[in-house]
């Protein structure tokens, strides 16, 4: 049962990061990638200041 819970949790995280990719929700996907540790600070620095600020705000809500 614990294995099923782990698989389900990880599947939800992967879906949050990669399902339904489109420009209208790109910032949400970037924020999910940052939240789950897929994007590094160095990689985030490649985005515009506006995007970085939006992602930071979204990540604050997730804590």
Short characterization:
It is built from 4 helices and no strands. It has helices spanning 2-18, 26-35, 41-44, 49-62.
Polypeptide structure, described:
This protein starts with a helix and ends with a helix. It has helices spanning about 1-20, 25-35, 40-45, 50-60. The longest helix is centred in the N-terminal third of the chain and has 17 residues, at about 1-20. It contains four helices and no strands. It is about 70% helix and about 0% strand. It has about 60 residues and is an all-alpha fold. The protein has one domain. It is elongated, with a radius of gyration of 13 Å. Helix 1 crosses helix 2 (about 25-35) and helix 2 (about 25-35) packs across helix 4 (about 50-60).
Uncertain segments: none
Helix content: over 70%
Biggest sheet details = none
Helix segment tally:
4
Mean pLDDT: 94
Distance between the termini: 27 Å
> Roughly how many Å is the radius of gyration?
13 Å
Taken as a percent bin, the fraction of beta residues is under 5%
User: What is the total domain count?
Assistant: 1
The computed structural class is mainly alpha
Q: From the structure provided, what is the oligomeric state, counting identical versus distinct chains?
A: single chain
Please write the string of helix (H) and strand (E) elements: HHHH
Let me know the number of strands: 0
Which of globular, elongated, flat, extended, rod-shaped describes the shape? elongated
């Amino acid at each position: 049962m614990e294995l099923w819970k782990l698989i389900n949790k990880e599947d939800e995280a992967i879906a949050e990061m990669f399902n339904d990719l489109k420009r209208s929700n790109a910032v949400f996907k970037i924020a999910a990638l940052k939240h789950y540790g897929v994007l590094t600070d160095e990689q985030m620095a490649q985005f515009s200041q506006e995007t970085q600020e939006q992602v930071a705000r979204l990540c604050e809500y997730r804590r």
